[in-house]
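Listing S7. Sequence submitted for prediction.
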Amino acid sequence: MDIVKFKVDTHNEADRQAILRELAEHTSLTASEQEQLLQELHELEVQSGAEP
């Protein structure tokens, strides 16, 4: 499975919630794929200075 990276404004709560909904809807992802997506979200939060 290819993972596509994109940038979002993590200060925008609607964007953050959309990412979390997308993660929740992809239950067919393997545990490692889910972990990769969660790590990428965390990296975005760190880059933006947002609190996790």
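Caption to Listing S7: primary sequence and predicted structure tokens for the chain studied. Residues 31 and 37 are 10 Å apart (CA to CA). The radius of gyration is 11 Å.
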